[in-house]
């Protein structure tokens, strides 16, 4: 595939991102420092420098003895602490979280923000910088990516999606979890071989009520990021009644999905054989439909 300028990818439905359609569960836009602590984990912040000199704010949430690292990409206009329940689940399973605050975040001062279109390029740079921090701080630990909404797109790019158009792959990523991924984004998702370079295990979580008006009016459209990946260790969880805010961890079906995510990450990333067996044997229920390819 011919590599395209990032700006040229923001055509058609993708332009709707500028309307804020890929946002996070409704929480306070600017987290209160008193509310950032997660049980059994320490929360800290640092800054990194992007290749263009831009300052990247990074949140690190780490248990005392991490066994793996999650590079977390938040939803559009949001921040790394908006998905507190998800974050706590990850750290409780032994993962340190490294999460940049992307330039579309409303937690940043106005002079440091970009719109959602311009944030694609800066998000990619953010995640590469976060991967570098992970390698320096936790050099022996395996790394996975987890993203919500817009962050799902960011995370899949890090796993090699759209490699012929976007230079965003992060070497060494072992697995990707996507919550409420975007819908189709022509010409990005319709390009021949757009997903061909994604070789790591992927887990997609969406709901049959996961609508983003004007962008993903059909909840099934989120599944393009499952259906078009090359076959092999692809799993989609479709939760009955779940909306685009499911990643907030408060909707019915969360506990079942979280347990499956635990086993996916502990098995595929940490090499836990029992977790692999549980995940591979899991069957659909009335609440969660499991699809595999």
Question: What are the salient characteristics of this protein?
Answer:
22% helix, 293 residues, alpha/beta, globular
How much of the polypeptide forms β-strand, as a percent range? 15-25%
Low-confidence runs (pLDDT<50, min 5 residues)?
Answer: 1-37
* Number of H/I helices: 6
Mean pLDDT: 89
Structural class determined from secondary elements: alpha/beta
Largest sheet: 9 strands, mixed
Separation of termini?
25 Å
Shape designation: globular
The Cα radius of gyration reads 17 Å
Which sequence of SSEs, written as H and E, runs from N to C? EEEHEHEHEEHEHHE
Overall number of strands: 9
Strands of the biggest beta sheet: in what spatial order? 1-2-4-3-5-6-7-8-9
Helical residue percent?
10-25%
How would you characterize this protein structure?
The protein has about 290 residues and is of the alpha/beta class. It contains six helices and nine strands. The chain has helices at about 85-90, 120-135, 150-160, 225, 255-270, 275-280; strands at about 40-50, 55-65, 70-75, 95-100, 145-150, 175-180, 200-205, 235-240, 290. A nine-stranded mixed beta sheet has the order 1-2-4-3-5-6-7-8-9, sandwiched between helices. The radius of gyration is 17 Å and the shape is globular. The model is unreliable at about 1-35 (pLDDT under 50).
């Amino acid at each position: 595939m011919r590599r395209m300028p990032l700006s040229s990818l923001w055509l058609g439905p993708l332009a709707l991102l500028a309307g804020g359609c890929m946002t996070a569960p409704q929480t306070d836009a600017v987290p209160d420092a008193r509310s950032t602590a997660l049980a059994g984990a320490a929360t800290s912040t640092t800054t990194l420098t992007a290749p263009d000199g831009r300052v990247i704010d990074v949140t690190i949430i780490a248990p005392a003895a991490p066994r793996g690292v999650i590079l977390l990409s938040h939803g559009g206009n949001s921040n790394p602490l908006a998905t507190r329940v998800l974050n706590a689940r990850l750290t409780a399973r032994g993962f340190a979280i490294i999460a940049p605050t992307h330039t579309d975040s409303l937690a940043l001062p106005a002079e440091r923000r970009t719109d959602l279109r311009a944030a694609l390029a800066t998000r990619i740079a953010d995640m590469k910088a976060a991967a570098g921090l992970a390698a320096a701080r936790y050099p022996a630990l395996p790394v996975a990516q987890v993203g919500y909404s817009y962050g799902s797109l960011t995370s899949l790019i890090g796993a090699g999606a759209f490699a012929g158009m976007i230079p965003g792959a992060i070497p060494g990523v072992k697995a990707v979890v996507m919550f409420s991924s975007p819908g189709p984004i022509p010409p990005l998702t319709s390009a021949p071989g757009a997903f061909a370079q994604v070789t790591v295990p992927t887990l997609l979580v969406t709901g049959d009520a996961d609508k983003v008006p004007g962008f993903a009016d059909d909840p099934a459209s989120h599944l393009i990021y499952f259906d078009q990946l090359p076959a092999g260790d692809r799993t989609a969880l479709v939760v009955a009644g779940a909306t685009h805010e499911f990643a907030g961890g408060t909707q019915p079906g969360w506990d079942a999905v979280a347990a499956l995510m635990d086993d996916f990450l502990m098995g595929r990333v940490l090499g836990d054989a029992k977790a692999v067996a549980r995940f591979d044997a899991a069957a659909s229920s009335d609440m969660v439909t499991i699809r595999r390819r």
